[in-house]
Design goal:
Two copies of one chain form a homodimer.
Chain A (H helix, E strand, L loop, with lengths): L1 E5 L8 H14 L4 E6 L1 H11 L6 E5 L21 H7 L15 E4 L3 H11 L10 E2 L1 E3 L5 E4 L9 H19 L5 E5 L10 H11 L4 E6 L11 E3 L2 H26 L3 H20 L8 E4 L5 E3 L6 H16 L2 H12 L8
Parallel strand pairs in A: 1-2, 1-4, 2-3, 4-12, 7-10, 8-9, 8-10
Antiparallel strand pairs in A: 5-11, 6-7, 11-12
Helix pairs in contact in A: 1-9, 3-4, 5-6, 5-10
């Protein structure tokens, strides 16, 4: 098994990526090979600075990288040979892959838009998922898979159904949830709620063989109302970012309280480690990178602000998905459901 | 000045409403008259139970009420004479108002959908706002006005612009913010982000005389990025409910920590009152009821779970809006902008 990792993606690249890859290599102990794609000199310098060895890590060199600010469209033009593009191309066995080795999965903490564009250019799509998207596992208890998290701002009802199908396979296979509950994010519980798209999505989901638990209001998401929540990417992106913002806001309010005097400071010392555990439990990176669902090869998006530990988790998560052949399971499920695309679009 | 209050709306009606009205009457000390609309026997019984006097409070009797579960469409049919419908009708001076008195504002904690339907049936619309909606003041520091909070799941770009105009008047007049910053809720900061509706809304807002600060990502909302945030009602409702859910979730996590042992319990005692203050600061009802923007008469929606104190705040908020003639200020602003409705729909 070989995992390809984008050395140049993310706010803390290549340093955090190099650290993460080294950690993962040590933990994997030969179970999977790792390949770093990026500027070999910058990679070497980062390894020196972090005092890690890159023994056993292969490097595919490119001095081209795509940044968060650049247009994802460049993935088709001037950035065709950036580290992210190469990493994606290395997943296939066809003529696009001129890099000497085929990877089983790809991990990048780089621009989400570019990863999405690159995947549509260089990676195949699973028959049955019209619009692949990046699913995010929100670290509630139990965790909740959010799909779509932003790649598809406008969605048709059938996309939500397809996302629910592959999302269910993911939760079943990777998280071991026997019969994952699918919820439709909506403004109220009644079937008629929301906009036209919601009403039709409700109809499709209710008529499917999925374990559909109905409309879920946003306030119920943190409380285990469902295992997968589907919505269009615009709304999903708002959910993702607001969850982040509210978490930060509440922790900030707490910090204000604890900084408000000697007694408060003492109070903090008493529960410091429990607070730390709580913050840690809210860190979604422990589950690995966000999986790109609907592609026919495993691709994972690590958070842009990933540190070494988060990169390591993303790599180990990718290994797990390859071991469990999550994409294979999705392919089987979609075939079995006979999801068909007589091109209606 | 006279404020009409729906005695039968909300989870805790009529008890909480009766308490709230009594509190408000005492604080207003004659500055405004209050009229309760609802079942006079239930109102009297609630007053007895709460040990409050209803001296000086007028009562308009009806034994019909509309519940949270009933279809808002009933406001046009079997519930035409429910307490909410009557309260709305009492705002006008025309033949619909057969109740002997004209109110300056209406407050209800009842069904939002019914209030919205009733307002479209019984209350006029400000020329210049195609689709009135309920704006919610989110209790961040500083507070942020969210519009639309759910009444309009699908919205056209021009609605967002109109909501920004009346929202700005509200924040200027009621909260004293000189030049309220308007943000467009979106998936990223670039102009091209989001769906077609967002892109066009961005164009309209950017080309207007409003203090438009551009796209705002959901994670920035709690941190003072803008004073008013506009979006379609579907997304707005998700923002509203997720904020609520995340607040509750984080406070719950904290409670778990504080219940985890003697030391944690001691820690809690030390900062108990500061925690209480924090919870209190997150309670939006301190600002009054949610104003219905775009109507030509002041209508306020108090939270369904309002207790007496929240009802009292909603009434005092309504008094303030009437004193400041917020609707008049909106009318002037819309006139000045010459917002026109050559019926394009």
């Amino acid at each position: 098994m070989r995992i390809i990792v984008d050395a140049m993606g993310g706010d803390n690249a290549p340093g955090a990526v190099v650290e993460g890859v080294a950690m993962a290599r040590d933990e994997l102990a030969g179970k999977a090979s790792l390949t770093l794609v990026g500027d070999k000199d910058k990679i070497a310098a980062a390894a020196n600075e972090a005092v890690v060895s890159l023994d056993g890590i292969d490097i595919v060199h490119t001095d081209i990288a795509i940044s968060m600010e650049e247009s994802p469209m460049l993935m088709a033009k001037s950035k065709k040979e950036c580290s992210m593009a190469i990493g994606l191309k290395m997943l296939t066995e066809n003529r696009r892959n001129t890099y000497g080795v085929v990877g089983d999965a790809f991990v990048s903490a780089g621009s989400t838009g570019a990863l999405h564009m690159g995947s549509s250019l260089f990676v195949g799509r699973l028959a049955g998922v019209r619009r692949p998207g990046i699913a995010v596992l929100m670290p509630f208890t139990p965790p909740v898979l959010l799909m779509d998290s932003g790649a598809n701002p406008t969605a048709k009802p059938e996309y939500l159904y397809q996302w629910a199908v592959v999302g269910s396979v993911y939760m079943r296979t990777v998280l071991g949830i026997e019969n994952p509950r699918v919820g439709l994010l909506n403004n109220g519980t009644e079937e008629c709620k929301g906009n036209e798209m919601s009403v039709e999505a409700h109809r499709l989901l209710a008529g499917s063989s999925l374990n559909f638990v109905g409309n879920i209001e946003a306030r119920e998401i943190p409380f285990g109302a469902c295992d997968i929540i589907v919505c269009d990417g615009f709304t999903g992106n708002v959910v993702l970012k607001l969850t982040e913002g509210m978490g930060k806001f509440m922790l900030g309010k707490l910090k204000d309280i604890y900084s408000s005097g000697a007694l408060a400071g003492l109070s903090y010392m008493m529960i410091k480690s429990k607070l730390h555990d709580m913050k840690h439990s809210l860190d979604s990176s422990e589950y690995g990178g966000a999986p790109f669902l609907g592609l026919d090869r495993p691709v994972f998006k690590a958070h842009g602000s990933s540190d070494g530990r988060a990169i390591r988790s993303a790599i180990l998560g990718a290994v797990r998905c390859v071991e469990l052949d999550v994409v294979g399971r999705m392919r089987e499920e979609l075939d079995a459901l006979g999801i068909d695309f007589a091109d209606k679009e």
